[in-house]
Amino acid sequence: FKRQRLPGCQTSPININHKPIIQQYLFQQSHGLNMSYVDLNSIIDIRQSSASNILAPSSSKSVLEPIIGPSGDSGAVLSSDPDVDAQILISVAFQSAVKVFSIAFKADTNSPQNASGPAKVHVFVDRPSLDFSEASSTTPVQTLNLSEQQLSGNPIPLRFVKFQNVHSIQLFVEDNHDQEDVTFINRIVFQGAPLQGMNMGDFKDQNADHDH
């Protein structure tokens, strides 16, 4: 049996000022300017995100925050539980609906022993309660067959039309490149845009409604 889903809880508050990013995008959009996609990691809700079948850290710091949070940690490593198998299931929640254009994976540093970077990743949308059994038997929105070169953090375009109103994304890592017992990931980055006509009040500090 795979380990219980581990939430991305954190003991210290995360103060994120993401409004300038969203305001810049909406300004470009309203003025008909060329729009570049923004880094959506700044509006990920860490506390509502989770990971399953991972090797839990010894510290109380969030498991996922260095991997999917607004600022990555160069030494961060998320790895599957070597006592189970190489599969990983990650659920990433956004603070409000977004359009997702691409996902970038980094798995090229600080590799644990007998570990390899992800090879096949199935992407689901708005399935926060997805488990391994469902992920294995349900048709994903898109499947990413990652080359080793793509694990250096280069954005991988998604079928944009399928990711237009996203509240959460689930990533099912089915296997890794070298068929090792452990899969590891250093960083995951999402690029995209807020929805049109979004109320800026919807983008609030993700800690505002939580006690510390």
From TrEMBL:
Q: Domain PITH: where?
A: 29-210
Q: Where is the signal peptide?
A: none
The organism's superkingdom is given as Eukaryota
For this protein, the record's InterPro entries field holds: Galactose-bd-like_sf, PITH_dom, PITH_dom_sf
SUPFAM superfamilies (alphabetical): Galactose-binding domain-like
Keywords annotated in UniProt: Disulfide bond
Q: Write out the GO cellular component annotations.
A: cytoplasm
Q: Which residues form a coiled coil?
A: none
Tell me what this protein is called. Answer: PITH domain-containing protein
What organism, scientifically named, is this protein from? Spongospora subterranea
Give the taxonomic lineage as stored in the record.
Answer: Eukaryota, Sar, Rhizaria, Endomyxa, Phytomyxea
